[in-house]
Amino acid sequence: MSNSKKKKLTPTQQEYQEMAKKREPARAILKNCFRAFISGGTICLIGQAITDMFIHWGGFDKEKAANPTVAVLIIISVILTSMGVYDKISQWAGAGSAVPVTGFANSMASSAIEHRSEGLVLGVGGKMFELAGSVIVFGTVAAFIIGILHLIFNPSSVGG
User: By C-alpha distance, which of 107, 72, 68, 70 is closest to 86?
Assistant: First the structure.
């Protein structure tokens, strides 16, 4: 807690905060990093296997197999989210399951599932981007800024 917030607390509240901080369990940082590494790596391994299947059996080349691979990973994530399995994986894996595209799909699907009783437009449509909206906005703004910088510093590559 910051010092400015601590000053506004009464002495009893400050004492309670100190006691709570002492009793707070230590975070297992190495264990959490290991779990994130294993789970994120497993998601990437599954994605690579799906890509290889599209290349081998689907007749795709390496570049064209990427888009259907992402779509399949998103579908798998949404199915696991709807069955309640992805949440259990996320509790164990932490950031390893939240960072890949499957985590993004999970955040959108779980918001949509949670608010489906409010209707398709105001519930699902309106609340689906509750968690993921900031990611979409930041990604769009960052892409715009990078595009402008690319145009400024490398104008010969634009326009063909």
Answer: 107
Q: How far is CA 24 from CA 7, 27, 37, 110, in A?
A: 21, 9, 25, 30
d(CA 9, CA 37): 40
Q: What is the CB neighbour count within 10 angstroms for residue 24?
A: 8
Phi and psi of 90, rounded to 5°?
-65, -35
pLDDT tens digits along 91-143: 999 888 888 888 888 888 888 888 888 888 877 777 777 777 777 888 899 99
d(CA 75, CA 72): 5
| Residues 6-44: tens digit of each pLDDT | 568 888 888 888 888 888 888 889 999 999 999 999 999
| Cα 33 from Cα 63, distance rounded (Å) | 31
Q: Is the pTM of this model over 0.85?
A: no
- 89 within 8 A of 97, measured Cβ to Cβ: yes
Nearest to 41 by CA among 97, 2, 79: 97
DSSP SS3 for 120: helix
